[in-house]
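Researcher: Let's continue the batch. This sequence belongs to Alpha/beta hydrolase, and it's 288 residues. Same format as the previous ones, please.
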Amino acid sequence: MSRPPTLTLPPCARAYSLTTERGAFAVHDARPVGVPAGTALLVPGFTGSKEDFIALLAPLAAAGFRAVAVDGRGQHDSPGPRDESAYAQGELARDVLAQATALTASGGGPVHLLGHSLGGLVTRAAVLLDPAPFRSLTVLSSGPAAIDAAQRARVRTLIEALGRLDMESVWRVMRALDPPEAADGATPPEIGAFLRRRWLNTVPEQLIATGRQMTEEPDRVAELAAVPLPKHVVSGAVDYAWPVPLMDAMADRLAARRTVIADAAHSPNTERPEETAAALSAFWNGLG
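Model: Same format as before. Here are the structure tokens for Alpha/beta hydrolase:
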């Protein structure tokens, strides 16, 4: 679970509901001064939300990019039905395509797609359905297939708990499932309160369906490699969900740019946002 370092939007950003042909999605939209060099569509991971990208918004806008972080359907501030089928990967991928279409219509140049963790699997599926709306794809802390075996066991435990307990009770289970690095340092009270509120706002069927995706995802790297779209694989120096060597190998198979953010783990976007934003903007600027 990503822990945003702050909940305060920078002056360049605003929160609103993005209207698309597939419904409305809560977003944080940061604009640069002047004409944007492009728009970054930022898709969060499992148990995540748009707030996981707050620390990236100002540095990306300062680099000349519009940055739009989104809550997917059933995540935090975006509504979603109490039906697992609504959160099939194909449905979530079509939501991303609809978001990209809406952002293109509102201006801001080419759309650079980024998915964090589970979001990496969803954005990959979106590109495989239709790469046309995108100028590039960045996979952030996400691997070639299902998550590591130890994490699969933890997520399956969580799915089982979601099937028989209320969300408040499962919140306590989630605390036990946190990776070791999540225990380092004290979480500020306002961030802790937000994490609990976000959890309670998320539709349980969304968590069950996407949790299964993380434990069952097949290797689709060869399919993605065949898509003629510039690709970037970014991670921290260590990762508990997908071991870093797996992401190294995936980048090679994709002929993708590879960036490792020093002193970061599964969430470089929250742990080292300035360095992460610099790596992202350098990649996008290099595409011309």
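Researcher: Any comment?
Model: The chain is about 40% helix and 15% strand.
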